[in-house]
Amino acid sequence: MPSCLIYLGIMLAVIIVWFMVVKRPVYEAVLLSFLVLLTVTGTWGNVWGYINDALSTSLLYSMVAFVSMSILLTKTKIIDSCIAVILSLVGRLTGGAGYAAVVASSFMGALSGSGPGNVMATGSITIPAMKKSGFPAELAANIESNSSYMGNMIPPSSNIVAALGAFTALYPNLNITTGQFWIVLWGIAIWFVVQRIVMVFGFCKYYKVKPMSKEDLPDLKETLKKGWQGLLIPVIILLPFILDYLFKDTFFTERLGADGAKGLSSSILLFIGGLASIYTCLIAKDKKVVKINNIAKMFADGVKTIAPSIGVCVFGYMVGSLFSELNVSEEMGAIITAWNFGKLGTVVAVCLITCFMGMIIPGSSLVVIFGPMFITVLANVGCEPLLVAAMLPCICGVMCGITPPLGLGMYAGMTLAESDFSKTFKNNMFWVAAQFILEVVVLMGWLPILGL
């Protein structure tokens, strides 16, 4: 048996036992798998090199900035006011609560950076609204969870920075800016948002869902008055990347030079999260919440939120560094290429592999460890490399969140909706299947993508 499959099997076995049997956090499972692999491969002598590789990437600090920003957005209740605006706009439509859940949860998931956390935050508003207008509990749970995990593939989610790192490591001379990469990510995300809206429409017809009742609808004038400042946060976050995409080769290059424009592009991720956090503090209604001592306490209390996601990324980078030295990704890529499935067959195979591994390994770790290999394999059969890189957060991060047993979003949605596990699981399979099919369609290049 190829050594790469042995190492991967060991990693999967450790994660399954530690996470699913012992029922310990997944970041512990990834770390333990790293320690076991060090022992099996006899590479303890290089452990500090792997740790240094994991901690030296600037992408890690971007993740910390955006996850920290999500804590501020949640604690200051700005997310709640934005959801109220969306509900007031689309809640009047037949099944409007479901459409509001798709839009609000996708949008807020990108800002908050936490799938299960976003389900609990937005779902506490959207799930009761859906149930009141006739959505079955299991459908309400799945609409919310599948929409919330869209945040894993929509900028500025921290999950996407690893995908950009994988692409730039393979193609350092293509001079792809962060702005261009984000435009492609948004272009992809549009299709998946549309797919979820179409599914909500179909389920609404099947279950004869009604619009939200007038007494449950937030007043549009009142919600805009209270929440309009929060709606500017996406503009603050997204505008620098759009400007970078549109004017890097003209305005910025002419004034800063090629190296200066490149440096500006690569630094956006490092400061934009902080800039949005400062704006959040300025518009917070309750100024007591954003006093220095309260912010310090907020982050101290939020360590439990930050630590798991950052821990998974750090330990995933460590495993990725180890696997890189052992040539695991290259061996796996050679095996997949040897299957000679052609373009469509290889795309389906990679999507199946990520779907299976996403049931056990966190999406961010999948991107870090195997992202370069997936890009190389699919590029070799004719897929656009930039498109593949931009799809990594989708085929890894989103699938990880919606597919049991690691589909934490489904369990969070079930808790809020008080839905039956069997019914929720069966309904969720429709969403997983639709997600899988659209992944294949996008990777095959059958749809136009903004930015490509």
Task: Looking at this protein, list some descriptive labels.
20 helices; 452 residues; single chain; mainly alpha
3D structure, described in words:
With 452 residues, the chain is an all-alpha fold. It has one domain (3-443). Helices cover 78% and strands 0% of the residues.
Topology:
Layout: H1 3-21, H2 26-41, H3 47-55, H4 58-75, H5 78-90, H6 96-112, H7 115-132, H8 137-148, H9 161-170, H10 178-207, H11 220-227, H12 233-283, H13 292-301, H14 303-326, H15 328-338, H16 342-358, H17 363-380, H18 385-402, H19 408-417, H20 421-443
Helix pairs in contact: 1-2, 1-15, 2-14, 3-14, 4-12, 4-14, 5-6, 5-7, 5-11, 6-7, 6-8, 6-10, 7-8, 7-19, 8-10, 8-19, 8-20, 9-17, 9-18, 10-12, 10-18, 10-20, 14-17, 15-17, 16-17, 16-18, 16-20, 17-18, 18-20
